[in-house]
Design a protein that fits this description.
alpha/beta, Rossmann fold, 2 domains, six-stranded parallel β-sheet
Length: 230
């Protein structure tokens, strides 16, 4: 007898506009392709688009009716982007009001940061874990990605293969866990780019200067401290 089809909702939560290059959306595309199969149906929502189009409740309903939720987002000020915090808080209220209808059983998260060290994402993962408790779901594990800023431009570089292998391997683990509904604990996955740290920050600085110039700002504008008091 075949197991019933499982459903997972992928929630992409980058504040960037849909027309801009976006690491979180790239990972969401990869996850959808890797996790979706005959046994797992994938649904996708973009938090920014939901707010712009006033379709939050449709997303909340899909999340409520899914077996699992996978949240993918960039690190902002060492935590979740503000719009994602609001989205999850509002969903928590929705879920409590419809608790008898909820199928949501487990939650996963992928967070990428511009720092080379993956462990900087740990606090954000803890926040998602606490959210899971609030909606009576089990947080299974997180994927903590360092060096996210270089992922888009180096996806096909040979030295990045272990980096992406760790991520796709984690997606495979999510698919297997959703299908099996195992209760065995799973450890977080950490991945970092095998790239010299000093060169990484040098390239990042050049990128900031290029962006400032593109937007008509002098380089010194990058060091402004508008909220600093005398």
């Amino acid at each position: 007898m075949n197991s019933p089809l499982k459903t997972i909702t992928l929630l992409s939560a980058s504040p960037k506009g849909t027309g801009l290059p976006c690491v979180s959306r790239m990972f969401c595309d990869m996850a959808a392709e890797r996790i979706g199969c005959e046994e797992v149906c994938v649904r996708r929502f973009d938090v920014r688009a939901c707010f712009a189009e006033n379709t939050e409740e449709s997303a909340y309903r899909a999340m409520l009716e899914s077996d699992a939720l996978f949240v993918l987002f960039p690190l902002y000020f060492f935590c979740l982007p503000g719009m994602l915090m609001r989205f999850l808080q509002d969903y928590s209220v929705f879920a409590k009001a419809h608790a008898a209808e909820s199928r949501l059983n487990r939650v996963y998260a992928l967070v990428n940061c511009g720092f080379p060290e993956a462990e900087i994402n740990e606090e954000a993962i803890r926040v998602v874990a606490r959210f899971s408790v609030s909606v009576q779901a089990a947080f299974r594990f997180g994927i903590l990605v360092g060096g996210g800023g270089m992922a888009l431009g180096t996806k096909d570089a040979p030295f990045m293969k272990p980096y992406f292998d760790a991520i796709t391997g984690a997606f495979d683990r999510i698919r297997s866990d959703v299908v099996s509904f195992s209760e065995a604990p799973l450890a977080n996955v950490y991945t970092e780019a095998n790239f010299p740290r000093k060169l990484y920050f040098l390239m990042g600085g050049i990128g900031w200067k290029h962006t400032a110039k593109k937007n008509g700002l002098p380089k010194k504008a990058l060091r402004r401290q508008p909220y600093k008091r005398d």
